[in-house]
């Protein structure tokens, strides 16, 4: 069993040998006159230098994730403040697409002799749907036509990235990381059922279907057709080596006529446990998601994010007790092992996360880590779940003999 983590003083306890890095860009929108989009970009050399050092001296196997087509960085800040007309955003998407491919080429040339695992994009359904439709994340636009453009441009970026990596990195192992969550009706009204089906298409099908099957889901295909060129699907659907899955919980969906897609979120039914994020804890949904993805796409699966946030407590001895996290990880890994026994080819399992960290939408208010971080002092304290998970790894380190798979975290 392999684990994704970098904890110098405790790494050996977890037997770390696989590292997942995220390649971010610092992008600044300097000025946009009425008819000119003027972009200023800088490369994050701090990341590059640190990655060089890590890859050379760590002895770990490194992998890169080209995160979110840069939409969450300076573009979204500038877009919220300055971009007001749809055509300007369309141009910005194209500019970002070109910049994205250039950045991939740079990283592939710089690290391709040492880094062989690459993910083209991470959680595209999250940043497109919340950024251009559901609200709550940058760039804060609620516009169905812009959502459709964003979906298609991200897919084009994925296909171009695969081609660039294949041409540049010998023996590259390439995939994309999708946040796949079952979409269940949050009410008994027929409109809620339709809303759940609609969100399922956009959330779970808008990216893996064109990338891996060469087609958009039927109910999405007609809507996105005006933004496509005849050869686009062939450019998007390029051969990849694995399917990256981020999974936490199902979505409960109700009809909301005030949203462009007519969907909204509802709380889970009474009696279903929740994390401190309010997310339902349903390990069987995880098992079924793994089986469904295996049947639909026929690719090896890496579970690249799975974990839970809870309010951690210190006992009288100063240890961090987090039994709810242990219960979550036990239930979800058991569900994964059931899927493996059913024939699902799972090559890796990555807990989110090794350390408490700054969460994208929640800041420091939610703790996902196996290791407690005192943010004031930066002291690291392994939680009870750290020891439990270390033992799980030792118990299952030879899982490669089980259904022909290996498991990573």
Overall description:
By secondary structure, the chain is α/β, with parallel strands linked by helices. The chain has a single domain (11-401), classed as TIM Barrel (Alpha-Beta Barrel), CATH 3.20.20.80. The protein is 41% helix and 19% strand. The strands form 5 sheets. The protein has a 7-stranded parallel sheet. A hairpin with a 6-residue loop joins strand 2 and strand 3. Helix 5 (124-132) runs antiparallel to helix 6, helix 11 (283-297) runs parallel beside helix 12 (323-341) and helix 12 (323-341) runs parallel beside helix 13.
CATH topology: TIM Barrel
Amino-to-carboxy terminus distance: 8 Å
Form type: globular
Work out the radius of gyration. Answer: 21 Å
Q: Helix segment count?
A: 13
Number of spatially distinct domains: 1
Low-confidence stretches: 1-12, 21-60, 67-88, 403-409
Helical percentage = 40-55%
The structure class reads alpha/beta
CATH homologous superfamily heading: Glycosidases
Main sheet record: 7 strands, parallel
Brief description of this entry?
With 409 residues, the protein is α/β, with parallel strands linked by helices. The protein has helices at 11-14, 45-57, 74-81, 86-111, 124-132, 144-168, 190-205, 208-213, 218-224, 232-236, 283-297, 323-341, 384-396; strands spanning 18-23, 26-31, 38-42, 61-66, 117-122, 173-179, 183-185, 242-246, 251-255, 263-265, 301-306, 313-314, 320-321, 346-351, 371-374, 379-382.
């Amino acid at each position: 069993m392999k684990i994704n983590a970098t904890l110098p003083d405790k790494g050996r306890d977890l037997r770390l040998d696989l590292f997942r890095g995220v390649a971010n860009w610092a992008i600044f929108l300097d000025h946009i006159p009425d008819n000119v989009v003027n972009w200023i970009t800088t490369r994050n050399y701090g990341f590059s230098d640190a990655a060089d050092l890590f890859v050379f001296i760590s002895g770990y196997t490194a992998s890169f994730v080209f995160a979110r087509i840069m939409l969450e960085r300076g573009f979204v800040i500038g877009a919220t403040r300055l971009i007001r007309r749809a055509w300007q955003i369309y141009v910005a998407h194209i500019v970002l697409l070109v910049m994205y491919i250039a950045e991939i080429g740079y990283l592939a040339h710089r690290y391709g002799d040492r880094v062989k695992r690459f993910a083209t994009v991470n959680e595209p359904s999250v940043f497109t749907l919340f950024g251009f439709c559901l609200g709550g994340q940058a760039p804060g636009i609620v516009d169905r036509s812009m959502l459709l453009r964003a979906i298609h441009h991200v897919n084009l970026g994925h296909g171009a990235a695969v081609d660039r990596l294949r041409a540049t990195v010998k023996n590259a192992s390439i995939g994309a990381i999708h946040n796949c969550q079952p979409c269940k009706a949050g009410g008994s009204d027929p409109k809620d059922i339709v809303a759940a089906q609609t969100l399922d298409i956009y959330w779970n099908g808008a990216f893996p279907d064109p990338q891996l099957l060469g087609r958009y889901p039927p109910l999405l295909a007609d809507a996105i057709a005006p933004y496509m060129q005849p050869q686009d699907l062939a450019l998007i659907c390029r051969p990849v080596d694995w399917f990256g899955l981020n999974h936490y919980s199902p979505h409960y969906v109700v009809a909301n006529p005030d949203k462009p897609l007519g969907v909204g979120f509802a709380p889970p039914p009474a009696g279903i446990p929740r994390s401190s994020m309010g997310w339902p804890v349903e390990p069987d949904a995880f098992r079924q998601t793994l089986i469904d993805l295996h049947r639909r796409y026929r690719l090896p699966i890496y579970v690249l994010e799975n974990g839970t946030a809870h309010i951690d407590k210190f006992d009288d001895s100063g240890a961090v007790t987090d039994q709810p996290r242990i219960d979550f990880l036990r239930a979800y890994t058991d569900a994964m092992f059931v899927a493996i026994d059913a024939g699902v080819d799972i090559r890796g399992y990555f807990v989110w996360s090794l350390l408490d960290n700054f969460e994208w939408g929640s800041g420091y208010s939610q703790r996902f880590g196996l290791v407690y971080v005192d943010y004031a002092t930066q002291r690291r304290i392994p939680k009870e779940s750290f020891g439990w998970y270390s033992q799980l790894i030792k118990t299952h380190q030879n899982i490669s003999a089980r259904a022909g798979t290996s498991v990573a975290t």
